[in-house]
């Protein structure tokens, strides 16, 4: 019932925008599909997503979809782990262009099928898991020109102070 109540706070066009936004999470395209002008769709999409009521309705629709599909963080992580494990296994025998299997000689001299190891998929899955576990951090350097500390002019400064700092920054 919460969905109906939340939807009633929006115009019909805003409701359509919210449903269309869930299709591809592209605000511009959702605005166009909802009937907003193509020329202003980018601005309209951004404005609509910034609207508290629209954002709440989008969030509610996303939660309902996740519940309906039984998709949550556990499901996503389990899928990533399963994919990594499958990519690490010998699941696809290699074949030549003509369709014949690629055979390799084993240690005991017998022939066996050659299997492809999908390293890129394993690494991509491991990267996604690592991000989830916050194992990797993107470092952001905050500094001014030449590695010197940044100078910030704030509204609390007097015009004279701000002017002086600005002139010092230009001199550097």
Notes on the structure:
With 172 residues, the protein is mainly α. The chain has 3 domains: 2-69, Terminase, small subunit, N-terminal DNA-binding domain, HTH motif (Arc Repressor Mutant, subunit A); 73-132, no CATH class; 141-172, no CATH class. The chain has 8 helices and 2 strands, in the order ααααααββαα. The protein has helices at 2-8, 12-24, 27-33, 41-50, 52-69, 73-88, 119-132, 159-171; strands at residues 103-105, 111-113. It has a two-stranded antiparallel sheet. A hairpin with a 5-residue loop joins strand 1 (103-105) and strand 2 (111-113). Helix 2 (12-24) packs across helix 3, helix 2 crosses helix 5 and helix 6 (73-88) packs antiparallel against helix 7. The protein is flat, with a radius of gyration of 28 Å. The protein starts with a helix and ends with a helix.
Protein structure class: mainly alpha
**CATH fold-level label of the largest domain:** Arc Repressor Mutant, subunit A
Task: Please tell me the overall pLDDT.
Answer: 82
Strand element count: 2
By CATH's scheme, which homologous superfamily of the largest domain applies? Terminase, small subunit, N-terminal DNA-binding domain, HTH motif
Helix content: 55-70%
Distance, first to last CA: 62 Å
Order of helices and strands: HHHHHHEEHH
Strand order of the largest sheet: 1-2
Please describe the biggest sheet, giving its number of strands, its sense, and whether it closes into a barrel: 2 strands, antiparallel
The domain tally reads 3
Give me the CATH architecture of the largest domain, please.
Answer: Orthogonal Bundle
Radius of gyration: 28 Å
Text of the CATH class of the largest domain: Mainly Alpha
Return residue spans where pLDDT drops below 50 for at least 5 consecutive residues. none
């Amino acid at each position: 019932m919460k969905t109906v109540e939340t939807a009633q706070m929006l115009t019909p066009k805003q409701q359509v925008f919210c449903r269309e936004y869930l299709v591809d999470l592209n605000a511009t395209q959702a605005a166009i599909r909802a009937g907003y002008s193509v020329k202003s769709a980018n601005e309209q999409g951004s404005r609509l997503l910034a609207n508290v009521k629209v954002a709440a309705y989008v969030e509610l629709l996303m939660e309902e979809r996740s519940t309906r599909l039984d998709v949550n963080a556990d499901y996503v992580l389990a899928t990533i782990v399963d994919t990594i494990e499958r990519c690490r296994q010998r699941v696809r025998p290699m074949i030549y262009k003509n369709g014949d299997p690629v055979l390799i000689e084993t240690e005991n001299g017998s022939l066996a099928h050659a299997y492809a190891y999908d390293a890129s998929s394993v690494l991509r899955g491991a990267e996604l898991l690592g991000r989830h576990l916050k194992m990797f951090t993107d470092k952001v350097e905050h500094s001014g020109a030449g590695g010197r500390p940044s100078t910030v002019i704030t509204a609390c400064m007097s015009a004279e102070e701000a002017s002086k700092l600005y002139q010092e920054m230009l001199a550097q």
